[in-house]
């Protein structure tokens, strides 16, 4: 029997019309949700559709709701694993263009997965600054002797590396825009030496986060969206999450990379064993009547 998801939802009166109360938020009971033996892992292939998967596994395409519920998928369109075409459309809708998503930073994270270099125990003890030792963990040899140090596998993130405030005088344009990407160029405007994202702007001051490169005074700052060009007269660090010597241990994560990673995670789902599908459907029906 077809088990339509919203058929189990209660109805309410709204504007003199009977309608389905979609504000209800059902959950799988803990007894089922926290029992790994009731699920098995499944990797979606490109182009996989939830209704077809439900048909193949539960012999009912309307059991797609059970797949969504078990995997805490709220948005059945963009919470599902997207193929290349749909992913590109999603990025363009959300960020305006692929280029925008590739240029904008969401946060910084420790880059230990790409740093396989080890340092000697002697270097760690005698040369490495004490403030950087937190990024390393020892490798032990025979008799528990430390033979070297490697990067510690922590997955911390910080929202931004620093925020810098610039006093400026406008050369051309009207004003910088909050949210736009700016390039910091040399005085001749012939070379990009740094950049960031605007978090505050008025007629004489602009603050940027996700800062890179040379931010010294006498450089020019150029808005990529506003096309404003200004000469920096003063540069002040307003906030610094990472000291300059720590920067090498962190890498920026761009929105495009972030969305790709999330989409890849959506490829791996879990399926409730078909023997428990009817039980779950009845539990949902009962909960929705409460």
Sum this structure up briefly:
With 290 residues, the protein is of the alpha+beta class. The protein has helices spanning 30-33, 50-58, 64-70, 84-95, 98-103, 121-126, 255-265, 277-289, and strands at residues 11-14, 17-20, 39-43, 105-110, 119-120, 136-140, 146-151, 157-158, 162-172, 181-185, 192-201, 205-213, 220-223, 229-240, 250-254, 268-272.
Give a structural overview.
There is one protein chain. The protein is α+β, with helices and mostly antiparallel strands and 290 residues long. It folds into 3 domains: 100 residues, no CATH class; 45 residues, no CATH class; 79 residues, no CATH class. It is 23% helix and 33% strand. It contains 8 helices and 16 strands. The two termini are 23 Å apart.
SS class: alpha+beta
Assign a percent range to the helix content.
Answer: 10-25%
Order of helices and strands: EEHEHHHHEEHEEEEEEEEEEHEH
Shape descriptor reads flat
Question: Any key phrases for this structure?
Answer:
290 residues; alpha+beta; 6-stranded antiparallel β-barrel; 8 helices; 23% helix
Mind sketching the topology for me?
Layout: E1 11-14, E2 17-20, H1 30-33, E3 39-43, H2 50-58, H3 64-70, H4 84-95, H5 98-103, E4 105-110, E5 119-120, H6 121-126, E6 136-140, E7 146-151, E8 157-158, E9 162-172, E10 181-185, E11 192-201, E12 205-213, E13 220-223, E14 229-240, E15 250-254, H7 255-265, E16 268-272, H8 277-289
Antiparallel strand pairs: 1-2, 3-16, 4-8, 4-15, 5-7, 6-7, 9-12, 9-14, 10-11, 10-13, 11-12, 13-14
Helix pairs in contact: 2-3
